[in-house]
Amino acid sequence: MNLHGFVLLSSLLFCMGIYAVLARRNLIGMLIGVELMLNAASLSFMAFNRFTAPDPVIGQVVVLFVIGLAAAEAAIALSIILAVYRSRRSIDVEDVTELVG
Amino acid sequence: MSIALASFVVLTIAGALLSVTLRNILHAIFGLGVSLLGVAGMFLYLGSPFLAAMEVLIYVGGISVAMVFAVMLSQALGTRDIPHEPGRMVAAAIPSFGLFGVLAWIIHGATFPGSPNREPAAWSPAAMGHALLTDFNLVFETLSIVLLLAIAGAILIAKREERT
Fold first, then answer.
1. B102 occurs within a structural domain
2. Do B88 and A23 touch (CB under 8 A)?
3. What is the domain extent for residue B46?
4. What is the Rg, in whole angstroms, of the alpha carbon atoms belonging to chain B?
5. What is the pTM of this model?
6. In a 10 Å sphere around its CB, with 0-12 CB exposed, 13-18 middle and 19+ buried, how is residue B62 labelled?
7. Percentage of residues of chain A with pLDDT beyond 90
């Protein structure tokens, strides 16, 4: 499998993530889509790191950074989802409309 | 393409498909875990066992389990039946698959020049740890502060609503 295959797989994962964010009405379903997109980016970085980069450390550091940020993002997002659920007994995105102008 | 790599690719795509299509959110989270395992296998193939281990530890063992706990702690979160609207799914499928078509077309015609470095010493976890504490020290410190603030913020947000 060459670089083209990996980049194609990564873009497929990214587009599935976009689909999940757009199609889901469940907040956790949207969070799953975001995680898929972050993973697609990591996979792309690792593939380019393997096949084109003169210094393989840089791509690995970037992927480690993405994984760490994803952990932080998931913690914040889950706590916000729990808070939303507690206050309105629902995690349907159509119900959360306080910030609609 | 070896059998191991092919199975990782299948695992990644099948898991992602399950995680975006299944209606029960708990099943979707398990699909996400399967997909992340496949991605970790591909990191292994791409020469970084350390990042593959981190992927399994943090994503499969951390984030997926945290999601499962969030669903289970608030019973109706995942099982409450939010109706699927076909119109919404079609409206989401058109831009996402359109984007994939455009990306695939671009990737098909692209050439990626470069000089890969396959020296085992450059790929070792020791080289990465050394870089993290010297050239990329700012990344390391930023990540630690961001994680600390995120954990503190998560506790604060999840707790404040409980009192009121």
1. no
2. yes
3. 1-79
4. 20
5. 0.90
6. middle
7. 56
